[in-house]
Input
Amino acid sequence: MLKKGYCFDDVLLSPQFSDITSRSRISLASNLDDRYAFGLPIVSSPMDTVTGDNMCVAMENSGGFGIIHRYSTIDEQRAALRSARDQGCVFVGCAIGVTGDYIERSSALIESGCSLICVDIAHGHHILMKNALSKLRKEFGSGIHIMAGNIATLNGFNDLADWGADSIRVGIGGGSICSTRIQTGHGSPTFQSVLDCSRSDRDVALIADGGIRNSGDIVKALAAGADFVMLGSLIAGTNESPGEVIHRNGQRCKQYRGMASIEAQIKWRGHTSSVEGVSSHVPCKGPLGLVLGGLETGIRSGLSYTGASNIPELQRKSVFTVQTSAGATESSTHIK
Ligand code: IMP
Output
């Protein structure tokens, strides 16, 4: 079977009549479920160079939320969760795996006030995910919000929803530090996966994850049906991301690495298995609030071009054009 998959750069949203007279009148509110609503549809990725306690606090202050990574002991993860509470954070997510201590870990985190459990594995459309979701629901009931992923297809989305997920991370192989497609030949353009999964009739939030490079990609992901976007590289290197500032070629940088990179695997499990990520450095970007503020301005402007005053209206009205490769060149700045 052969199907076509479009990525962010393959498409553009068509500008439409707009009666939005001020971008400040646009709402970017999005619901994670019946209980949890956020002012900004952005989530920070559960990676050890992206989300710890400080990132959760800063994400909440900007209207989104963070998910503390799982690559630490239970005590360390719980300490990060508590520290985000101590700093006034109301909503904190925590990631877990599907083997080993994941039930004990979830129990400790839920007892310590975690608001969301994120079942975080590379290939989420998997029997181990099914078993883990069933166990988690049996153990903790429906009171706790469970995010699960990642998946790349509508079948995967529907199965995870039916297995008990409340929200689902969509995107395989698109991350900036990801080498899954090179290592395994598998993946799907994140934009196409979002478009496919948005056809689901399940009442589950869709989180577009991997490969989002700018506010334009965020607008396209939301228009294609995402309720939230998850960010890694765009917010790595902020003051609130974990890690030391290092100097490279006269520039202040922080490490940003895939959780399946050699460096990350050595750190969290002492050896490497299938290497599906790389380690890199990103320039220091200052406070998260400034970075998200810039993105938010672009997103608001994007909704205004479609004539949408909120995300559901954007999703109803949006019309995509597939552009040629010459169009993609024209779409980036091209002054000679
Ligand atoms: P980015 O926003 O393009 O940098 O992508 C971040 C996303 O990449 C994360 O939220 C994960 O879904 C994914 N990811 C993180 N680490 C790895 C890895 O080592 N290999 C493949 N994907 C990864």
